[in-house]
Fold these 4 entries.
Entry 1:
Amino acid sequence: MAEKLLQVENLKKWFPVEGDKLFSKSTSVVKAVDDISFYIEKGETLGLVGESGCGKSTAGRVILRLIEATEGRILIENEDIRALTSKNLKQKRKDMQIVFQDPYASLNPRLKVEQILEEPMSIHLDISKKERKERVKQIMQDVGLNHAYIDRYPHEFSGGQRQRIGIARALAVNPKLIIMDEPVSALDVSVQAQVLNLIQDLQKKYGLTYLFITHNLGVVKHISNRIAVMYLGKIVEIADRDEFFDNAKHPYAQALLSAIPRPDPKLKRKRIILNGDIPSPVNPPEGCRFHTRCPYVMEECKSISPELKDTGNGHWVACHLR
Ligand code: SF4
């Protein structure tokens, strides 16, 4: 069995919300991430999918300690990064990077490409200025950017090129884990496939490990080795990619899959229409979080939260029917 690069154990991120009534001191909590556990093997891509507001992006930020967790453990190569001092965390940061959805908002508009790529190197890598210049050249080549553009500013690039700069910046410090947070969602469809292929090529070349966060099941099918589905702060299913697309077991995952158009009309799936919207993560439903929308809801679902259980072959499901 391959070595695990990332292990997340019982991770929680709850945000307090101030009472909205005058003179009320009551606080509620948004359970954005509520007791999730999973691992990613070295060189693997785990796709983390779910509708907007399900907590997947918050999970990514908590794993990198961009925001602090409420509870739980985050191990990178068996080292608990929540236990690191700020000095040690700074050193560890080079191992774990993030690529954001909106490359324009995440790049400093006042810096040229060369400065954007050199900046993290000068913080994290003990190399000379000459070596940094060489490395900038190599990375620009790796991500398919012409080195002649080195003096340009982010606004002088297209959306796809800007995302290539974002990826190059993450690569600059030679990381082990990259969290890709909806990295192609803001791009034109025609450019998405190119950037996805680039992300895969870089993984092969540098042995990278990815947590790939997206709402798009087509993208996740293209890029992932395994898939985890989140609903209202909980992981409800984890399985190998092919197993998931052939045999999803959680009613929520089945409903998501039923909405994907299939090219062959003979293979048409019956569309499962879910009732209502996702409930608020402020005081989410008791029991199974999905029970207010589930077509198979039973009495026990309203009070007992289902555990994520291994149903065989690494296919984990949180549902009382399984
Ligand atoms: Fe539906 Fe109950 Fe399973 Fe939740 S536990 S998904 S409500 S059947």
Entry 2:
Amino acid sequence: MITKTQSALILVDIQNDFCGGGSLAVPDGDAIVPLANQLQPHFQLVIATQDWHPQDHMSFASNHPGHQVGEVMVLNDLNQVLWPNHCVQDSHGAELHPALDITRINKIVFKGVDRTIDSYSAFFDNAHLRSTGLADYLKEHGIQDVYIMGLATDYCVKFSCIDAATLGFNTHVIIDACRGIDLAVGDIQKSIQEMEEHGVTVLKFQDVIAKDF
Ligand code: VGL
Ligand code: ZN
């Protein structure tokens, strides 16, 4: 077994609501689950994130009468896309995908718990006011390299990667182990470019499996 010492795998939001039949299903989202399972044994540390919203979360269109899913609103000076209700705390939709191997997960990071602000990144809320504690956890475990995959490429994966790179981790996105929303056509492609501009290395699943760290 090739163990990537000092490397952590971060599984972003592999939850029922982002997969087939979910309320915010990402096209082909389920396809990444077997890849997540195959990657996990190669890493020293495995982190999973869960979007974990209260029912009255301000990112839900349903909490803004007269407004529609997909609209952008300004909330506390930040642009906020309005989403269908999703990943409500303790609901089936918020659970990790049933086929995801959870036996190797060392830590779960819950995000988006404050009703007043969204949190796409695994590290900070969208205003960068509050940390989730993930960066400290990784540093305490001597992690220098992070490999990120999951849902959705153009939201939570992108912001997690950019924050990780900005925090100084050698950051890799396993791009074919991610799926995106593409609310506007081209968003996924743009998000890949943005990640690269922030110093994120774009890799494929096979590169990671084959790479001898
Ligand atoms: C996400 C939209 C809303 C994501 C979470 O996981 O990418 N997207 N909440
Ligand atoms: Zn959310």
Entry 3:
Amino acid sequence: MKKSDAFEVNFDGVIGPTHNYSGLSYGNLASVNSREFHSNPKQAALQGLEKMWYLATHGVKQALLPPQERPHILTFKQIGFQGTDAEILEKVAKTSPDIFRACSSSSSMWAANAATVAPSTDTADGKVHFTPANLVSKFHRAIEHPTTSRILRSIFSNDHYFVHHSALLSHSSLGDEGAANHTRFCTDYGEEGIHLFVYGRSAFRSVSHEPKKFPARQTLESSQAIVRLHQLQQQNVVFAQQNPEAIDAGVFHNDVVSVGNKNVFFYHESAFVSQENVLSELNEKFKRVSEKAGKNVSELIFIPVDSAQVSLEDVIRSYLFNTQLIQPPDQSGMLLIAPKECEEVSSVQKYLEQLLSDPSSPIQSVEYFDLRQSMQNGGGPACLRLRVVLNAEEIAKSNLGVFLNERLYIQMTHWIGKHYRDRMSWEDLSDPRLLNEVQTALDELTQILQLGSIYSFQCIYP
Ligand code: SUG
């Protein structure tokens, strides 16, 4: 098998049937500002599916991750609620509405936070490594990893090719938000890559400065643990601290201020502490692997955006960097998958116009998507996908039932149409019939995707 027979596969989280706005993520401005809005789960799921289908029809390998079961009865039981499922739901909704909301979020849709992944070209044992993110910083997200782990193990079940680690210890010192704070650079997907790990604070070491207002979710120690678990070479790794001012402005994950693909890095000037050092270390390390691969590409291409062009506030309003930077096989230049908000924020629209008119820019086109249902919770195009670099043999050993093709696209459109509500308010969320609707839908989905039993209502999993 040629090394270059490797692909970046985008695994998008299917937006779940309880998608709603509960204002659960302090530090994420969109989430807090949308609290109490009515959501439309059906529209949300179709918006996500349209993005996936666009990429699939442009030759990009696209797969999907199923939503998690919500409301999460198991968590209610673990914290002492007793009775039948219907009795538990009623009790929690009446006595602990905040816990009810936290356990009803469809937040697993933001697959960039599902896990961190290392491709087999970069790991000492030559296998693909997965570590689900513990997401300890937010209660509603900290309950995701056991199911995430089962889903990943079910898709990548062959232990000759795939290694699954448990989520890191659920303690704030090891706060891990997954691939949202990780970027891999390479000359080709099948060649050795450089891994950029971005953290917001250190649990044990004093770092130059930390955010004053909003929480820094990722720690240096968790990123270091992932590097060890995934058997990455230190010479191929760069650690960078996220700029605390950016976190305080609402940049709760690094993928809100930067995005990279292959040899291109697109970022805001206020992304990192000691930005110049971070960039030069990245470039030095990239040059080494590039020379090793014997490629013409020897330097990273940096596309910085400064505050005079686009302010940090506009970055957060538009999600300019929460875009997907894609190399479609049918195009020479790179394509940016952007949310519609980028067309609506004038500084960003102007910036993108200039970028595209520059013939030397590696980014040659932009496609805008209406992902408003997700965006209102702070989740743009890049949040919705987990990138997994796989070679052709590894793809063949994966569960192909989750890879999007025309048949699955049609099945998913019908499935969403059949099972999803088009409005979700607090009354809808606490409607006792919702649980049964969700379980029926998810049970059918596991059959469509050939995943076996992954939900606790299907078996005795914790
Ligand atoms: O963790 N929002 C998510 C958004 C995650 C975006 N992901 C990336 N940047 N990769 C979060 O803050 C809001 C849920 C609510 O408020 O109902 C929420 O969880």
Entry 4:
Amino acid sequence: MKIDRIELHHISMPLVHPFETSFGVETNRPAILVAVHGEGITGWAESPVGDRPDYSAETVVTAWHVLKDFLVPGLLGHPIDAPADIFSSPGFKMVRGHNMAKAALENAVWDWLARIKNVPLQKMLGGEKTRVEVGVSIGIQPTLTGLLARVEKFIAAGYGRIKVKIKPGWELEPLMAIRREHPTIKLMADANSAFGIADYPLFQRFEPLNLLMIEQPLGYDDIIDHAELQSHLKTPICLDESIHTPGDARLALKLDAARVINIKVARVGGFSNALAIHNLCAAAGVPVWCGGMLETGIGRAANLHLASLPNFVLPSDISATDRYYRRDIAEPVFTLNTEDSTISVPQGAGIGVTVDEARVAEYRLRREEIR
Ligand code: OSB
Ligand code: MG
């Protein structure tokens, strides 16, 4: 089978609520959407790249360049009967790194193949769960009272796991305040690399809070200091930013630098690497969960399919649509199953959602079609 035309869309979506992490505030979420057309079918995927190279080294501009000038031209006309065929195309063989650019194109091809076969994407990935356990990720808030009100609101809405962003000066106190009011809620913290190994005594003070895990406390490119930090703690450390490849995951597992891994399909370069990391962790007895990047309904649908695999045993950062966007670009929107803090995996062909192209056009800053 052949792909004859590929579209790139750069969009910017207004968030319902500004999202603050240790590296800054976002009020609008950019993304690159990829649509692959061939055999009368269209496959979609989303690259949740940022405007700034803060979470990852890539930006909308670098991902656009790598897609348009290298990855896409090599895939047009290249025979594809299974996802693995992508990797023999000239662009994928050549390009080093640029995982978020690769993920968008690879994942659009997975969606395209699943739609051609008329099966839900999860079947092709090997996932069986029909509901995925989820939580909510709460950004840094201006005040402690504001944070507690937000936590309260999400718990009342049915979320069974709360993750809060932390940074130096906003760590122990907010976590203790939440724990005091919610003694049994599944609670965790994400530092997005804001601390150093010298801060280990601070993390030891987290231990009585019984956190599910501490996500990416140290350097975005570090594994070895995380191993050292883990040796001082009972609370599991989870790696996010530091894991880009199955090789990174092997190293982290070998050094006991991560007792949990957050798999973000964009960060690891697409479903093939995500599956490889899932399998490595399963073999090592290390649980995984699916991270989020404030995706639109396109990226979140893909995440739900991935998180339906068996070793995704911890709640994933996939929340209901109304937590991110007033109007999303794909239908149907996602709602929380409040009885068990899950979201159902959409059961249509491919990612199981329909892209609203008129809305994509409304939020679009740039479009390009390559034949
Ligand atoms: O570190 O997990 C992160 C959003 C943008 C960049 C990094 C992160 C996040 C989130 C959002 O935590 C989770 C979600 O999409 O709900
Ligand atoms: Mg994170």
